[in-house]
């Protein structure tokens, strides 16, 4: 079995476990979708990633738009995390995010990041993190 084929089977297996209730987090779904797109493993089953994603949404009982939102939030968070870690700001891995973090939260944050000067954005994120981890300082 080729690397691409085994990757495709692993992704499909994990996505199907979401359908059976084994995995419920949006981050896990987004991560699997991102893996499928990056590895191009979807090509064995569909003419386009969009077509493949639509098929997955029907299997999962979710709307296409929800899966696109999960994927977008996943990609944004991975970029944000890399940026924050590069500035020595602690940031959990995607699959360890708090249940309070949602794709909608990340979408709003990405919009704010585009309009708020990076220095202000960075200062507020770091200050917020310090308040959460050291409330008595």
Tags for this model:
mainly alpha, 137 residues
Structure description:
The chain is mainly alpha-helical and 137 residues long. It has six helices and no strands. The radius of gyration is 17 Å and the shape is elongated. The N and C termini lie far apart (56 Å). The mean pLDDT is 81.
Question: What is the approximate shape?
Answer: elongated
Assembly category: single chain
Helix and strand content put the structural class at: mainly alpha
Provide the residue-averaged pLDDT. Answer: 81
Radius of gyration: 17 Å
Helical percentage? 55-70%
Question: In what range is the share of β-strand residues?
Answer: under 5%
- Cα end-to-end separation: 56 Å
Number of strands: 0
Largest sheet: none
SSE order: HHHHHH
Ordered list of secondary-structure elements with their pairings:
Blueprint: H1 3-19, H2 26-39, H3 49-60, H4 64-86, H5 103-115, H6 118-133
